[in-house]
Design brief:
mainly alpha, 213 residues, 10 helices, MetI-like fold
Length: 213
């Protein structure tokens, strides 16, 4: 999520603020992992970043190996989570009033200062929501991961893959229950925490807007 966050925010900013040829295509490509079968996503990653893939062989020259490594599992999780992270961030940025930008520009604030003092704070609830949605998607990711990096204990085995392995093992029911409870607890904590944080951020922005008015 930490690696995917800046990529998701840049893409959301481009889609929210820029008008260019191919914008609709870029948006569709970003959303593709959300609607495409996860196994197909895993196959694409395997053919691109696997040991025999073009990108995989090129990255290997720099000591970066993704195929059948935990780094590949992180890449798969980040890719399938990307659409769910971009969407709320884009909506939050699109809801920023252009009149506020104009007022700050007239007051002599440059583009970067307007971004730091206006766009980023107002988009923070969307960023938090995107992180939580992405985290939830990544936590439950299964198909792309097992296709791309397999199910190697201690290396690429995620909690979802561990539950799957326990289901296939005789007497693994107890482990399935334990892992399921852990995943549910993590999800609840993440969702509740995000709701509290988004509410506080929204209330702070409302108070700030009232003071400015």
């Amino acid at each position: 999520m930490l690696a995917t966050l800046p990529i998701a925010f840049v893409l959301a900013f481009i889609l929210a603020r820029k008008r260019f040829v191919g914008r609709a295509l870029l948006s569709a490509l970003i959303m593709l992992p959300l609607v495409m079968p996860p196994v197909v996503t895993g196959l694409i990653l395997l053919n691109l970043f696997g040991p025999n893939g073009i990108a995989g062989q090129w990255l290997e020259q720099f000591g970066i190996v993704l195929g059948f490594r935990w780094t590949g599992a992180a890449l798969a999780a980040g890719l399938v989570a990307l659409p769910l992270m971009v969407r709320p961030m884009r909506m939050a940025l699109e809801n920023v009033d252009p009149a506020l930008h104009e007022a700050l520009a007239v007051a002599g604030n440059g583009r970067w200062k307007r971004f730091l003092t206006l766009d980023l704070p107002l988009a923070m609830p969307g960023i938090v929501a995107g992180l939580v949605l992405g985290f939830a998607k990544a936590l439950g990711e299964f198909g792309a991961t097992i296709t791309f990096v397999a199910n190697i204990p201690g290396e690429t085995q995620t909690i979802s893959l561990a539950i799957y392995s326990a289901l296939q093992s005789p007497g693994g029911e107890q482990l399935v229950i334990v892992l399921s409870v852990i995943s549910i607890a993590i999800s609840i904590i993440a969702v509740v925490g995000s709701e509290i944080l988004v509410e506080r951020l929204s209330n702070r922005q409302s108070r700030g807007g009232t003071r400015h008015a």
